[in-house]
Amino acid sequence: MNVNEQKSSGLSAFGGVYTPSILTILGVIMYLRFGWVVGNVGLLGTFVIVTLSNVITFLTALSVCAIATDRVVRAGGAYYMISRSLGIETGGAVGIPLYIAQALSVALYTLGFAESVTQIVPAWADYQLYIALAITIGVGVLALTSAEIAIKAQYFIMGAIALSLVSFFLGQPVEETQMELWRSTDQSFWQVFAVFFPAVTGIMAGVNMSGDLKDPSKALPIGTLAAVGTGYVIYMIIPIFLGFRADAQTLIDEPFIMARMSFWGGAIALGVWGATLSSAIGSILGAPRVLQALVRDNIFPKSLSFLGQGAGKNDEPRLGTAVTLGIAVAAVCLGDLNLIAPILTMFFLTTYLVLNASAGIESFLDSPSFRPTFKIHWSLSVTGALGCLGVMFLINAIATMVAAIIVLGIYLYLQRQELQVTWGDSRRGMWMALLRTGIYQVEEEIADPKNWRPHILTFFHSPQKNWSLVKLADSFNHKGFLTVASVIPERRDYQSKQNLENTVKEYLAKNEVQGLVKIVRSDDTFGIVPKLVESYGIGALTPNTIILGSSTAWLRDDWQGHQDYCQMVSQIHQLNRNILILKPNPTNQLGKHRRIDVWWGGMQANGSLMILLTYLLKNDWHWSRANIYLKLVVSNPNALEPTKNNIRELIKKLNIELIPEIIVSEESSFDDILQENSRGADLIFLGLAPADENFAEYYHSWLKRTENLPTVAFVMAANDFPFEEVLQKEG
């Protein structure tokens, strides 16, 4: 059973979703800041703020409904949905700020309660902070003792809110006034929006209780959409009464203006107290359940695992509630409603953005596993996500960037933890969709040498024994693809093959090498390799560079084995692939990664490819401090200076750090020059002639001639690829 599964307490759509959602929506902002909103931006401005806020909330509600009707939503609400859709890292990156926002919400509502009390009893103004602290501790104790009592109390609170609204609508003006349709004050439109927006974030109250619902997939859509609709209607009606009953300055100066307008002011007091208390209760119930889900998914260190414990038959997170209460008490000490509200707005908008992105991605990918009964078009979710992002920047671009940095920081931290989960998410589907589009796009486009990338396929016996081969292949890999492959005997079964693949993958990951792994079964190693080279890949994404270990058959006087190896190289060359054969020095391997010698014969295929490969090596941090010596042998001393000038001019055009070294052979053989000049190198590049019928003898001679030298990379370029165009700049 999943660690997040709880025994359902049997809450219905009305009791578990609609009631906590509408009580949070019709809360402290409505009673204590709605007049301030109307006074600052006028009637039309208020309509715009209310409509825009509700559009974002409505689109998010649709996304929530789509996700909720596709899968069982466990405890954790929005966090649970995001983590099961976009992965645990994204879920945690949003879930932690969401938990903090829920905890801060408790302070928002209890501060609102205290402010309303001091408005009614001005003599208590100096004790407003203490009243807020007392109420915060009170709702915390209530949640700790019995969440069930707290939930049932909401029905009485709903009655009080309904009574207060009736009393308000039956009231009268406090002064003669002329309604202002649009107003501009010291408060910008988006600052006013930021203060109001928490009023419509009540859908999280229902979502956070998802683990306590009898049937979340039905209750969440019905309860959430009904609450959003009810809230919108009420919020569009109230400004009309406010605007025609008091002038703008009165609305701004008197937070409790609704009480003066009402038929019975006491009903407003009951309503605001009920609303603030119910919202605070909803947050103190919801936030610990998010925390509990985060802890049980190992988002936090193991030392905090005790916070995931539950108590009683309903698995109530009492320890998490105590921690949440501590955060709320700390926030109350700030004592400023207008300071906390914008912070909550940014946190909630971030959560809404990712919720919409989750639903939009799932719908767009059209994965067979995503089958919601409440279907919406992906464009609605994307619009909701973009709306959240746009509003965040309009409210405060700096705060948006800070929020993004926090979320990204948490994401990267969780990614480094390599958390193991027991569920799948949509990320693989996202990459599959992008990969599908990319492959078809690459297939349609005409190949351009300027876009050449090394797609490397390298063969090994075992990564431990052939690590220099794999590491060098990884160093060449420059935003291309690397596949490490091996051939095992036919007698090894498929399970053994799969186990070896997993072992190699783990070894590569441990050594920070990003590559694919391919294991094939065959008793004919030299015969199967060319076939794998020919068949491996998809569309235009096929390996263009094959890296092999050097033949060792000649060391055992196994001429047949050597010929079979050379036949394999010849067949790969006929497939028009670049070939690099690594002959490692058994003692020094790749040395200190400080010196590379390239024995060069011009810009023809091998020469260009060798320079290109050394450039790729320099981009790898292991080789970043290496010096690349471009070595050229001339027979005539008179050719020394002209050759130096030509090489310097070429290097300048290539814009690659190369150190030219022109050697006059005089009467020395090339073998002697090679042994004398490259004895101190870490890696030597030598070009090979195309493999023909005499390749076995030719390659054997090179193996003999390079004995006692450092590691050698023999390069054989594909026949018809213009590598010089990859290197040369236009003009």
Automatic annotation (TrEMBL):
<dbReference type="InterPro" id="IPR004841">
    <property type="entry name" value="AA-permease/SLC12A_dom"/>
</dbReference>
<feature type="transmembrane region" description="Helical">
    <location>
        <begin position="262"/>
        <end position="287"/>
    </location>
</feature>
<feature type="transmembrane region" description="Helical">
    <location>
        <begin position="386"/>
        <end position="414"/>
    </location>
</feature>
<feature type="domain" description="Amino acid permease/ SLC12A">
    <location>
        <begin position="17"/>
        <end position="426"/>
    </location>
</feature>
<keyword id="KW-1133">Transmembrane helix</keyword>
<feature type="transmembrane region" description="Helical">
    <location>
        <begin position="44"/>
        <end position="69"/>
    </location>
</feature>
<dbReference type="Pfam" id="PF03522">
    <property type="entry name" value="SLC12"/>
</dbReference>
<dbReference type="InterPro" id="IPR004842">
    <property type="entry name" value="SLC12A_fam"/>
</dbReference>
<feature type="domain" description="SLC12A transporter C-terminal">
    <location>
        <begin position="468"/>
        <end position="583"/>
    </location>
</feature>
<dbReference type="InterPro" id="IPR018491">
    <property type="entry name" value="SLC12_C"/>
</dbReference>
<feature type="transmembrane region" description="Helical">
    <location>
        <begin position="343"/>
        <end position="365"/>
    </location>
</feature>
<dbReference type="Pfam" id="PF00324">
    <property type="entry name" value="AA_permease"/>
</dbReference>
<dbReference type="GO" id="GO:0016020">
    <property type="term" value="C:membrane"/>
</dbReference>
<feature type="transmembrane region" description="Helical">
    <location>
        <begin position="190"/>
        <end position="207"/>
    </location>
</feature>
<feature type="transmembrane region" description="Helical">
    <location>
        <begin position="90"/>
        <end position="109"/>
    </location>
</feature>
<keyword id="KW-0472">Membrane</keyword>
<protein>
    <submittedName>
        <fullName>Transporter, cation-chloride cotransporter (CCC) family</fullName>
    </submittedName>
</protein>
<dbReference type="GO" id="GO:0015377">
    <property type="term" value="F:chloride:monoatomic cation symporter activity"/>
</dbReference>
<feature type="transmembrane region" description="Helical">
    <location>
        <begin position="12"/>
        <end position="32"/>
    </location>
</feature>
<feature type="transmembrane region" description="Helical">
    <location>
        <begin position="219"/>
        <end position="242"/>
    </location>
</feature>
<keyword id="KW-0812">Transmembrane</keyword>
<feature type="transmembrane region" description="Helical">
    <location>
        <begin position="153"/>
        <end position="170"/>
    </location>
</feature>
<feature type="transmembrane region" description="Helical">
    <location>
        <begin position="129"/>
        <end position="146"/>
    </location>
</feature>
